[in-house]
Amino acid sequence: MSNQFNRRLALLGDDEHRALLGQGLRGIERETLRVDAAGQLARTPHPPALGSALTHPSITTDYAEALMEFITPVEHDISLALHRLDAIHRHAYTKLGDDMLWGVSMPGELPPEEEIEIAYYGTSNIGQLKHVYRRGLALRYGKAMQCIAGIHYNYSLPEKLWQLFAQDEGIVEERRHALRDFQSESYIAMVRNFRRYSWLLMYLFGATPALTTSFLRGRPHALETLSDDTLYLPYATSLRMSDLGYQNDAQSGLRPHENSLESYVTSLMDAVNRPYPPYQELGTKKDGEWIQLSTNVLQIENEYYSTIRPKRVIRTGERPVQALCNRGVQYIEVRCMDVDPYEPVGISLETGRFLDAFLLFCALEESPLISDHDSAMHARNFARTVKEGRRPGLTLTRDGLEVPLATWALELIERIRPVAALLDDGHNEGDVHTASLSRQKAKIEDPAQTPSARVLEEIRALGSATAFGVQQSTLHAASFRESPLMPAEEMLFDEMAAVSIADQMIIEQTDTGNFDAFVAAYNSSTLCGNN
């Protein structure tokens, strides 16, 4: 353990500061496709009774009209966030009719591209912007790739904790924004450690060892055939996070530098402003209709598909990169988690407890800068794990040496253990974080206990990835429909839906200027300091 780790751990273990660990915030975004009873993509619009996808705070759509996204409020304890997520699911099922929510990250059998409807957000300029951005995604990546679902885990530590660390390290408010900058760079350091160790999350929680043949749309691949409609890799953990997932040539060379917030922002701004010849050939309009927001490497910075992002809550009309520049990093968003097909809401409380311990470990541990060579090594370790993480004897590269994945994983579990114990000390539910650590250790010692191994075993038995998805989705749908919300809770959701529809109407009625001018203004607002 580094000196920094031990010092920070001791600070937080002090009676005077222990309560700080209970003041951080957690939130979950869960993506899920609406499908029919056979697992076919729903062709109907987003249910109006669920409110406006543009303005509802908890229920929206992601890429496709049928790809729903459920967003919890932030909570101090992940169990409360999961309770909120469960309530959103129960409410949604009262408005879905005969449809159900797909319980797996990778889609089942998909219709032809032209039959996958892109999400629609109304006639306002901001609503059209969201829609055209998705048209651009279809153009650049294909629609099938946009139907992948995941779990996003939003995590922050309280500002007082960063202030405590700053004071301990001799950072004083000698210059304007010194503490804000310390917090931002501490989150960026945390991101670097996440890059070093996130392969462990893929081994422990990856749940997509197989996919349907329809997903690849004829793309070349090196997968093995399990059945007429299913392809797989025998030791894969998360094909969703492999090069078969959300990738293309334009993004392949994009590696935002995470050695400082400034370098991270600069590299993203460059991608948003740098023309990409194949996109230039397509243009932004076809027959007078917008087909993408720009012809640059990225239309907007959120197009960069990253396993983790430093984030800041944005203000109306503000771009994410502007928020980071102007006010610093506020939280991080973990984006690599597969939907857990054995959990009705897509993620278990035990997984949340482990993520809390893992992310706090990343925040406390020393985090050296990452060279280009290091970055390539971390990417290679991640890629090996998602495609063959359960392969007996698989090695990863650490400090120039090949180390068995299992050996390194067990070492990491032990390094995280004092963090889990610290979290349990301030928790009134017993040793829940330590218990989660023990469960993960068992998966390392016996790969058959990993979600990817369990999923692959069931897919083999059923003979089809789609059949497995239908089975799990049907089970989850029944559990939600059999235990609806209390009437008072249901009424609150209905009120939220009504308010969101009214809010969208106000936006549309008060809009000024045409869409072309709106896009031009949006595209010109990428420089830091612009408001």
Automatic annotation (TrEMBL):
Keywords: ATP-binding, Glutathione biosynthesis, Ligase, Membrane, Nucleotide-binding, Transmembrane, Transmembrane helix. GO terms for cellular component: cytosol. The keyword Chloroplast does not apply. Residues 10-383 form the Glutamate--cysteine ligase domain. SUPFAM superfamilies: Glutamine synthetase/guanido kinase. Pathway: Sulfur metabolism; glutathione biosynthesis; glutathione from L-cysteine and L-glutamate: step 1/2. It holds the Pfam family Glu_cys_ligase. Its EC number is 6.3.2.2. It catalyses: L-cysteine + L-glutamate + ATP = gamma-L-glutamyl-L-cysteine + ADP + phosphate + H(+). The keyword Transmembrane helix applies. InterPro entries: Gln_synth/guanido_kin_cat_dom, Glu_cys_ligase, Glut_cys_ligase. It comes from the Bacteria. The chain crosses the membrane at residues 197-216. One of its GO terms (molecular function) is glutamate-cysteine ligase activity. One of its GO terms (biological process) is glutathione biosynthetic process. Belongs to the glutamate--cysteine ligase type 1 family. Type 1 subfamily. This is Glutamate--cysteine ligase. The gene is gshA.
